[in-house]
Amino acid sequence: MAIERTFSIIKPDAVAKNHIGAIYNRFETAGLKIVAAKMLHLTKEQAEGFYAEHSERGFFGALVEFMTSGPIMVQVLEGENAVLAHRDILGATNPADAAPGTIRADFAESIDENAAHGSDAVESAAREIAYFFSADELCPRTR
Length: 143
Ligand code: RTP
Ligand code: MG
What we know:
Layout: E1 3-10, H1 12-16, H2 20-29, E2 33-40, H3 44-50, H4 60-67, E3 72-80, H5 82-90, H6 103-107, E4 116-118, H7 122-132
Antiparallel strand pairs: 1-3, 1-4, 2-3
Bound molecules: ribavirin triphosphate and magnesium ion.
Ribavirin triphosphate binds next to β4.
């Protein structure tokens, strides 16, 4: 199986509710290793750039407002099939549809405030990692 990297955001709602540690625990229990991490409070421009693919959608303004409403944690996760493994433990975009035991089922309130983000493909992961981290901020695991 391929060792991949994926990009994660713990969104403002989950940070505000003190769920950072609980969500990190889900990553590590699933075998995903944190190889970079930091806390940020996004500017409007950073949030718009990150979610540019959704700029024509009706929810874009609310999404940007939410993502700039408080601090977030950004992480790079490394592991076997990391992109899909991470999406699996995140659960569906709408927490009402998320499988029991997933991060969004357990920590999210609504589709608008859904606790966490995960890259949807290896290509978007590479782009999203580069959006927030320089190469020298990544610490690949050797053991
Ligand atoms: P994310 O990018 O945050 O990991 O979420 P996702 O892939 O599961 O969903 P995506 O389609 O990329 O949507 C990005 C975020 O926009 C909000 N959204 N709201 N009201 C709506 O119909 C709607 N659809 C999407 C969600 O907060 C979603 O996480
Ligand atoms: Mg997405």
